[in-house]
Amino acid sequence: MKAPDASRTLDAWRNERAFPVLTPPQIQQLGAGGRRRAVTRGDVLLDVGDKTVPLFLVVSGELEILRPVGTSETTIVTLTPGQFSGEASLITGRRSFSRIRVRESGEVIQLDRDHVLSFVQANAELSEILMRAFLLRRAAIIAVGYGDAVVIGSSHNAGTLRVKEFLSRNGHPFQYIDLDHDAEAQEFLDRFDIAAGDIPVVLCGTNAVLRNPTNARVAECLGFNETIDPAVVRDLAIVGAGPAGLAAAVYGASEGLKVLVIEADVPGGQAGSSSRIENYLGFPTGISGLDLTNRAYAQAQKFGAEIMIAKRAARLACERQPYALDVGDDSHVSARTQILSNDSQN
Predict the structure, then answer these.
(1) pLDDT for residue 9 is more than 50
(2) Could you tell me which of 6, 65, 262, 344 has the fewest CB atoms within 10 Å of its CB?
(3) Contact 168, 141 (CB under 8 A)
C-alpha cells in the first residue's frame, strides 16, 4: 500500500496563487477583529482531526503546515509574514487535514470561522484572494489523496464506485487502494477475514474501519455535518442541492438569510454528472456539470449557507410554524420557509 508522493504535494502547494503574500493594508483589513497572539517555536496551533479550524495570519515568525504519517511528518509548506493558513475545510466547517506548528517564534492573528465567513461576504478584493487560495489548496490535497479517508476496493465493484463518487463529488480528499492491482492490500484484507461482500473498506478518521458503508455512514464518520446544529431555526430550508437548490441558497444567503440545504446524496444532482452543459445562462462556450455545480457549491458556502450531506428529507410538517422537516434518525430541522427544488434527489 503506497503512500502519496510528497514531492507532488510540495509542487502543487508552493505557488503564489495558492499562498499569496498580503500587503500591509490587506493584513490590517483581514486582521481587524482577530486575536493577536504571541507564538513560540514548537507550539502546535492546529492538528489533524481538529473540529474547530481557525485561520492564522502570520505577522512575524514562521509557521509550517505538516502532514503526519505514522510517527513521521512531511512538511508541506512554510508560511512567512503576510501569508495565511486555511483551505476549503475552513469554509465548509469540516475537520482539519493537517498540522500547523510554529517554526520560528513570532506573532499571529487568529480569526475564527464565523469571522472569516463574514469577512469574505463584505470584502470583494480579499474574498477573491482567500477563496482562490482555499480552493487551490484543496485541489492540491485531492490530487495526492492527503485526506482522512482511505478507500480499499475494486473498480469492478459497484459499492467502491459509489463511495469514490460520493467523496469526489463532495470534494473530500481520499487515498484509493485498488485490490485489482495491489496484492499486498488483498493479502492484508484476507488476514482480517474481510469477504467480497465487505468491499469497499473505508478507513475513516483515526480509528474507524467501515465495511461496505452507506454514503450516510461515511458522511457521519468523516463529520460532514458536525457544525450543523439542528436545533437552530433557519429562515430558509432547501431540499435538494442541484443547480436550482444551490441557486436558491446563494440568493437567500447573500441577502442575509440563515439558509440550510438538505441533500440526500451529493451536491450537483444530475447536472453534476453531465460532461458538458451548453444551455446554462452565463456560459456561452459551455461548462462541465461538475465545474458548474462545484462553483455553485462554493458560492453558497461563501455566503454562509449550510449544506447537510447524505440526509434524506422524509416528511414535512406544515401544521405549525416554523415548519419542521424530518431528516431521519428521529431528528428534524425547522425553518420559516421551505423550498423543495425540482432537481432534488430526495
Answers:
(1) no
(2) 6
(3) no
β-pairing verdict for 233-239 and 55-69: unpaired
pTM: 0.80
Contacts of 185 (CB under 8 A, 6+ apart): 1, 152, 177, 178, 179
The CB density around residue 239, as the number of other CB atoms within 10 Å, is 23
Report the C-alpha gap between 284 and 287 in whole angstroms: 9
pLDDT tens, position by position, 125-143: 899 999 989 988 888 888 8
Domains located in the chain, CATH noted = 6-143 (2.60.120.10), 149-221 (3.40.30.10), 233-340 (3.50.50.60)
Q: Give the integer Cα–Cα distance in Å for 310 and 294.
A: 17
- Backbone torsions φ then ψ of 183, nearest 5 degrees: -65, -30
Output DSSP code: residue 2: P
Radius of gyration from C-alpha coordinates of the chain:
21
The DSSP 8-state label assigned to residue 280 in this structure reads S
- Counting beta carbons within 10 angstroms of the beta carbon of residue 291, is it exposed (0 to 12), middle (13 to 18) or buried (19 or more)? middle
What percentage of residues in the chain have a pLDDT greater than 90? 42
Work out the number of other CB atoms within 10 angstroms of the CB of residue 121.
Answer: 15
